[in-house]
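Side project, low priority. Logging it here so it doesn't get lost.
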Amino acid sequence: MNEKKIELWHVPSPGSELAEKLEEMGLDANDLAARMGYTPKAVNDILQGNCRITPESAISLEMVTEIPAIYWLRRQMSYDEFISRERIKASLSDQSLWKKSFPSEINVRDWVRQDKDDAKSLLPLLKFFAVASPQAWDGYYKKAQLKVAFRISLADVKDPYATSAWIRRGEILSDRDPMEKQEQIPVRKRLKAALPEIIAFVAANKTLPKRAKKITYTTPEADVVDDCMKGLQELCRKIGIRVLFVQNFKSAPIHGMYRWYKDVPLIQLHDRFEKRATMWFTFFHELAHVLYHGKKGICLQNIEITHNHPEKEDEANCFAQKCMLEAGFEV
């Protein structure tokens, strides 16, 4: 696809509109060149779309055509944007395998919104991840550039594509419901003070409620989070901790994650645990990371990741076991 075909099929260059204006005024390219103080070649380049309209030439056109300079500049900007978008689409057309690497459930769950015209396009998926290209995704998630308190890499995770989608979904949900920025020490103090209340809440909610209908991959997250899970979110929010429930994938069966996101401690949990006890153990495990391990890290439960520190995981497990016993569970 070349630019001449693009111009014929879609957005005309501002030069073609200028040519129509000249015809209306009864002028030709040579007349316009003389009036602007340009060479005929320079004017012909503008008319043919081979030369951009600059602020200087836009002002000159305003003097001759009485059409404001800002109009010509906006037309040029729109044309430039269209050409750039078409070039990007063309460059992405041979990278469809990248899109196929992600779990199909992303679309079933409506995480990535797209129209029928976008069925083969990579753009909706790129917008979901807030990256400009598959190469940018690769650099951010697989080459140790994923920004948390320090940078990590998902390169050695069994399915980095599904894992990155789960992590990104948490970010999107967090951004929809902003929280005030938190300081680490005050959060820890509030958490220590509220721990007996949290344990009592867990003790009162040991089992899963009976489902009115079967939960499937197409069930929206909002329909899965029950009153107990909402209560936990509200309780932790008062402390300054965000708790999210996000459905994972078969190829990336993550149970939980701890990280600081935009200066707020985030505990992200799978939303479809078969046993409530497993959810509570995972929650307490991640809570230990908030309490003891600070901002410098990201911890994923039930999935291996290269930066994990065994001693921190052991400490978190011990904390979770202690809290579970206090809540009346047999560990």
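Brief comment: DSSP finds 16 helices and six strands in the chain.
Revisit when time allows.
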